[in-house]
Amino acid sequence: MAEVSAGLGTGRASVAAVLDFAWTAGEFTATEAMAGTSLTRSTTIDAIDTLLGAAVLRELPNARVAGAYRSGRPARRFALSPDLGVVVGIDAGDTHLAVTVADVLDRTLVHHRVEVDPAHSGAQRRRTIVEHVDAALAEAHVSRDAVLAVCAGVAAPVDRDGISPPHPDGFWERTNPGLAEALRERAPVVEIKNDALLAATAEGADGAAIGCRDYVALLASERFGGGVVVDGHVLHGAHGGVGEGVVFDHIVGVESASGLRHWVQDQARAAVEAGEVDADGSIGRIVATDRVDARLVLTLAASGDADALRVTERVGAIVARIVGVLGSMYDPARVIICGAVAESIEPVLAAARRMLPAELHLPAPELLASTLGAEVVSVGAVATARKAARERAVPLLAEQRLSLRA
Predict the structure, then answer these.
(1) What is the per-residue DSSP string for 207-243?
(2) How close are the terminal C-alpha atoms of the chain, in Å?
(3) Which end of the chain is more exposed for a tag (fewer CB within 10 A), N or C?
(4) Each residue of 313-325: pLDDT tens digit?
């Protein structure tokens, strides 16, 4: 509420209160707004009229026209204007780029996902992201002026100004090549966030962490990285580095931030080399190919294949060690495995659950697979952009329109 009031300026507290109420109210009457804001009737009506004048609210047909009228004078009904604008969510992964254009409430207008070359320079990556944002807006038939907020998720720590710190190999600077500056002309509010942090936001809003105040969303497909929520607050850190995967390089028995896809491949090969599985069996034949298909190994394990289950047992031990460290550091109630790998990871999690209690002294967190799939970061980016629109962009838009009327 404070941010909304600030956007509307001094003396606009009642307008801010009604606007804040309208975001979740759907269709409402002045009486309902009065009850929801604790304002007087006359103040509520004045605030509604102000927001109507700024075209932030619209008046709906009354109950008589809508066919719900019974007796007495029909109440005026209101809702947020459908023409407020749009938000853009971006998942700028190392090997993929997803761009979503959505309205400010609940509707997706356009969603694109393409593969990108991880060998691209920072300048090439920056240009590609901007071009795909513009293409998505064009497909949605939306002008730049209609964009209220943009949120981009990147595989790097990001500080509160949208800047990533230097990386020893230059990876963070390449994955976030000045995106805050590059996107500044596309919206009045631009947010650049770590991808795992956005995964945590998505799980809390639409996924396996709804109603949970303490959890870790562990992005695990290509590399490990955690979005951490404690006491209902997403943890950030001075440089946006809470949950950064380099910690896994230093865990005995893990010693790598490589994600679960790589671990399934490596442990399949290791099981064959150790003679734990038959070289002529299902896993042996997969390993004999040039590229081990991690999804196929997991699918075989889910079907009960004995050799595949031996591989997932090995990977489960690694996941248990990782979750044990996270459990000891942050004491979460849940750890949610996120990313495309989550769709088929249950055999690994079943093994990890059996081993997890021995990995920490605290009660073991519940270990779950995300239901949001490969789009988890996109879901979090759109949710974050909508929140920014609600708290910052729309109040500023209302203020601008009211100033023009003054």
Answers:
(1) STTTT-SSEEEEE-SSB-EEEEEETTEE---TTS-TT
(2) 24
(3) C
(4) 999 999 999 999 9
At residue 8, the pLDDT reads: 56
Helical axes 13-25 vs 30-37, angle rounded to 10°: 110
Distances (CA, A) of 68 to 29, 61, 63, 75, 309: 14, 11, 5, 11, 60
**393, 81 contact by CB (below 8 A):** no
Helices marked H in 253-368: 260-273, 282-287, 294-302, 306-330, 346-355
- Tell the residue number behind the tokens 């002026």, with chain if given: 145
Structural Rg of the chain based on CA atoms: 25
In this prediction, the residues of the chain whose per-residue pLDDT falls under 50 are 1-2, 6, 9-11
Contacts of 23 (CB under 8 A, 6+ apart): 80, 105, 390
Separation CA 242–CA 232 (nearest Å): 15
> 294-302 vs 346-355: helix axis angle to the nearest 10?
70
Q: Are the beta carbons of 256 and 248 closer than 8 angstroms?
A: yes
Report in angstroms the alpha-carbon separations of 301 from 113, 304, 309, 316.
29, 5, 5, 12
**How many residues are recorded in the chain?**
406
Q: How far from 79 is each of 20, 29, 32, 334, CA to CA, in Å?
A: 12, 9, 12, 37
Cα dist. 218→164, 249, 309, 319, 350 in Å?
20, 16, 22, 11, 16
377 CB-near residues (< 8 Å, 6+ apart): 91, 93, 98, 153, 195, 198, 199, 202, 219
CB 215 within 8 A of CB 203: yes
* Amino acid in position 248: F
The span from the CA of 312 to the CA of 260, in Å, is 10
Residues 139-159 have pLDDT tens digits of 999 999 999 999 999 999 999
Structure tokens at 11: 């003396």
H/E segment holding residue 103: strand 96-103
Distance CA 161, CA 15 (A): 29
